[in-house]
Design a protein that fits this description.
Elements (H helix, E strand, L loop, with lengths): L21 H60 L2 H10 L15 H14 L1
Length: about 120
Amino acid sequence: MAGKETAPRNGGGRTQRRRPPRARRQLRLVWLGALLLLSVYLYYRPLASYFQTRDDLATQQATLTSLRTQKVQLQRVLESATSVAAIQRAARRIGYVRPGEQLFIVKGIPDWRRAQRTLRRNG
């Protein structure tokens, strides 16, 4: 039968695809699962590091903003403390007097205030 072609057995000229055996399909699923686990393992640390760094950066920026505000406040205090009037007030608080002035020390002020409060209450 040299010139005779045989027709395919399944009918319409199509070749039938054979499914791989069940063991081979399970092996492919195992490999797919292993690759998935490997990719998760390899991406976990860089992603965790990224999120940690992002949180640290936000914390540092909040601290920086707070420190800048504090710096502005301290500069205002410094400017007011270096004025002549502020220096004179600070000197008087610690007991300094100008040359030619006389220093008076008054004692017993808390006792006097208590006595005044009791007088006001009792009429």
